[in-house]
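Lab notebook, bench 4. We co-purified these components, and the gel suggests they stay together. Before we commit to crystallization screens, I want a quick structural picture of the whole thing.
Request: model the full complex, all chains together.
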Amino acid sequence: MLIHWKSHFLWALCLPLLTISRSLASETFEEELTVRALRDGKVASRFSFTTILDGETPRNPQNLSVEDTSQHYTLFPLTLGQILREYAVTEMHLSLNAGKWNYKRWGYPDEADVGSGAELWAWMGDGGVSTVDERWRGLRNGLAGLFCASLGSLDELRTTSPSFSFTPQGGVPDSPFPYAIRHASLPSEHVCTENLTPFLKLLPCKSLSGIASLLNPHRLFDADWHGMGLHVLWLPDQGVQVRLTFQSVADPLRPSANKRDWSFASIFDRTIDRTCPSATSSRVAVALPINEAYSIHPQPSSIEQDHAIFNLEGQNAPLDVSMQWAAEFEYLATYFRTAETPLSVRRTLQGSSQDLGKLSVFITNDGTVEIQAAYLETMPWIVQFYLHTMTFHVDGVPRADLVHNISYIPPIPHSRAMTFQAVLTLPSRSTVHLSIDITKAFLRYTEHPPDAQRGWDLSPAVLVPLGPGAEGRGRRIYTPTLLVDLATPDFSMPYNVIIFSCSLVAFIFGSIFNLLTRKFVVLHAESN
Amino acid sequence: MKLLLDVGLVFPVLVAGRLLLALTNLSGVLKHNHQLSSPLTSYLNLQEGIYLFKNGIDPYSGGVFRQSPLFLALFTTVLPTSRTACSIIWTLCDAIGAWALVQLWRARQRVAQTSRDGLIAAAYLLNPYLFLSTLALSTSSFENTLALLSLLFAARGLASPSLLAAALLLQLSLSSVLLLAPSILLLASSPVSQLASPRPFVGNGKKILPLLAEFLVYTTVLTLASTLVSSGWAWIPQTWGASLTLPDLTPNVGVWWYFFTEMFDHFRPFFLMVFSIHLVIYVAPVCIKFQYDPLYAAFVLLGVLGTFKPYPTMADPGLFLSMIAIFPEIYPYLRYPIVTTLLHLHAALLMPLFHHLWLNQGTGNANFFYASTLVFACANGAALTDCVWAGLRIAIGEPQDGYVVVQE
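Here is the predicted assembly.
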């Protein structure tokens, strides 16, 4: 009896040990804020919050049928972790942006995902009890709930698999089954406070302390450009990494026409009063101007490669970094004659008719070397390409030889989206003009959105420079989104149409059968 | 003019005129026109399919290309694809159609040559519904020519060519299966006009089953050939399936597109079934009623197709209207030819106008064009019912004073 009781006691002692053994995998949290002044006087800031789950691997999809190990996290966001485990997501990237990133003036962004609206892409392994598409649906619905965004609308109509342009950024565990990508974007998604609040809840210190205390919605959503991102990767030598990012482009010139001086107080209307105790590293990096007289306050902790570094550990007084220039800002036309990036893309949809149009893409290579670039175009089925009308001109001369490796997945009406990928050779110092005729679909009246006359937003195209030596290699360049005007039926009269058409059919049918079934007789007119 | 018609010069002159017209740049303007080519017959879609096929992408994996794989086989091997060459091929195809119509008329009259030949050729080659569709390079021109050839061979009693043409036509358009019954009846009897003297079916009824079997063999072989060309069965739902499920709601001159644009999702399958069956319902009554003149039954069914088929173009009612030329015996018994003509004129003028106002100008909405297609359907229905009436009424003959002809 005593022995029996003892074994129970030991068992009871071991139970919590067993359950917490997984949580012993150490978690680290780092946060960083990068601020850099842009050439046109605006200030780009990038917040990055990184949590690493040491030694953890993404869930193997083949184990989806067996119950998952329990999840105990201290810093890692549990709500996100549950979604990732439930759908066995190896890698995923979500971005919610508002505005148009101006590559020409602002250069490459710190975080590549700057396409307007919502964009979600994920790599998942196959071979589970549920298919990749089923888990993709679960993932986007889960994230839609988590971020209060209309990600549920990223349905089959918008989902594509552009494996060429969106390669995994981390590692993928070995598996006998292939990994597949699912990508969807929703350019009409509006990003606002209701998305930022759940974003902040995923951070260990919320917005109470650390650099996250600068995330003031009143100022962020007033910026010229802003966007948030969520990136989940697997780093084989470290573990699962979750990185939450927030980028914004503020305009200090807005209140004062020629003073581009900025400070935390002026951009965010807040200062960093406390450090986040959970963070193992917490720092602010400010890019220092070259060949210009400036002053920065307070004194940075250190200077690394033209960046002033402020370490927040042990910070007692509120930190309000500010920067002043000696000279007043002047708009110089010469600034913008040369682009910050060697490649720039201009994409337009031409034609005023509601049934036909032409997609016209101008890609300029300002560099001195020839660049190979992958071009990706994804369209919902409402816009269909006439691929046989594709022309490719360099400065007016037809150059069909510059397009190769075309892969094209045609759209299926009412369901699958179209994917067009090609590798383009972009000669140095020249503009390449790609043009394709398109046809606009006619939708059922139930398929139109409530504001049908507004038109449909089309996802941005993506250009990825490839090949050794290309500047910005592997960094995606998003084009602005397009708006397509589709023909609309009359929404007020489905009953009328059904009645008119059916009456006409019945009338003709009746007349013919009346003639066919009745006999002709000759009557004497007077007897009538 | 009389002399021209007599010496048979009119046919070469008309074809030469049409060829000159084909060489102008009109096809570039007309090929986008929704009234002249439907998603199932559009030249742009054909070119896209050929391009995808040549580049190793299955054209049937998407929703743009909905034409028969036989077109892919022809245009990637034998036929050229440049627009000028195509314009000439399409015009020659129309010339063959006109020739078939003239021969059909001669077979019906059992004479080698008549003074009406030139007029009948002109009725086909100068019919604006037909020649504008041909200028727009719509493949419905091929469908019309095959339909006429099938009827011509049937009228001459050539079973195999007729059934082969009918099987080819079925590959291009599923709805044309309606023409099979009158074609087989025509093979089993004669094309000579019996409208004025109705009698029970006099042909050889035993021939019908072997003819049907032969048709099935041709269809199977062509279906297998199509499958071989497109290396898979995916073409069937994309081509034949499209006429049953209507995935593409691009406006056309028919009654289906706006009806199914505005249809409630719950009732869509039901009404698709109703509209498909509605077409088939006409076959038996028309063939039974006109059993003494199967060519006339075929003519009436062409009228039904022109009015009610899922993806019609102007060329479908156009064929019906041109065929009226070979039935001059019914003219005195038409009740309202003027009204029908005016309805056609009204619809033919309003449709392009309202289409332009809706899609290009943006000053009219879809109801404008829908209304004009309703008028067009009325015009076709009026012509059809009038022809059915006249075809039956002719049996009674001219009324005498003091007597009237009515239906009981």
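The first strand of chain B starts at residue 403 and ends at 407. Worth comparing against the SEC data before the next meeting. Chain B has one domain: 2-326.
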